[in-house]
Batch of 3 targets.
Target 1
Amino acid sequence: MKLLLAATMVFLLAINPAVSAEIKPEAQSFAAFWVQFKAAAAKGDRAAIAEMTNFPFDDGSKVSKADFIKKCGEIFDRKTQKCFSNAKPVKDDKRDSYCVFCGETIFGFAKVNGEYRFTYIGIND
């Protein structure tokens, strides 16, 4: 009986890594992220944008989620929403990140803990 129990435990432990490997979600592509982010920005959906943003958010200072949600309407004003509808993200080949240029503003996106996030906003110099 002990031998059967021991054999069963070894079997379960041996297959466990294979099972958990199958359950892991695939890495999110930037294209999929961009479709979701662009749609949220077009609607002015502050909550959805915040869910796809890395905090503390870098806008020259470190902004909390609550403060970001308050400022979201300023960041994604109508001009920026229009820009995002046609914007083509530019990949940074040195890092797994992308930038979107809207006039004098750069919107940065990067992988954080395996998922793409809106990571910073800055001045296009």
Target 2
Amino acid sequence: MPDDDSHWLQHWVHWTLLAGLAASAVLLTCGLAFMVGQGHEHAARHETLGMLCREAARFNGPAITTLGLLVLMITPIMRVIVLLLGWALRRDWLFAAVAFVVLGLLVLSLSLGVG
């Protein structure tokens, strides 16, 4: 039975990483295409995520590219979340606790890096 649980968890981790990479690649490619087509010289600073999403919805190339980079940066965090949930569902508390600590460190480093 542990092999089935392990396979299930590996499957979800794989698809999480693949989806994050694919979404990031699509956003980066589209953003670069819009920048080449529209001739943007530099990217504007976006103060909030909502502002960034509104600019991306207006087909602003630098905003779409920035969104693609954010998706790429969030992908490993999503992987840790999937592992944390998977290990918690399997009641593997030691690995779940380690994943929780890693997630806390990732969130801390992201919050310190944004400021």
Target 3
Amino acid sequence: MRKAARMRPGRPQRLAIMMMTLALALASCEDPSDDPPAPVAEATKYVDAIVSRIKGNDPDAEEYAEARKIHVLDVDGDGVKDVVAFFTVEGFDGGNNYHFYLSVLRGRPGSLAEAGTLKIGGKGWRHIDFDRLGLEGGRLIVQTSEYEQGDPLCCPSRTGRARFKIDDHGLKEVTNTP
């Protein structure tokens, strides 16, 4: 009687087995923090609905989705995290105009509620730094680039700040008083 031949996988099979093993090992090491935090994931749904509302029935209007920025912080000082979202909608009526928006979503037990959404900048008005957001005395502070006379529409040159507050009537820009 012949001994049964021992089967050894060839080089391509060994390589495939090693790659599958590596893939399984990497998948088991995945960091759950790679997923967005719950307030950000929930806020994304709200902001999607707000963008749809702003676009209305205009088939040319689109959000510049890569620019969207969501911040999680306690805006109203009640101890519950709120969400501040910046986003851009462009292409209204097929044109090349764009508008910057600020939306505040108040944290509620287990959910968010829209406190207000406001157009806060755009082409020919002012640019907004979506990454720099401050909170001073219950006011949201946003870094801006303002247009000086003679600035091209692409490039406002003067730095500035805009302030916003949330009250019972919604989100409003606060103007400086002397």
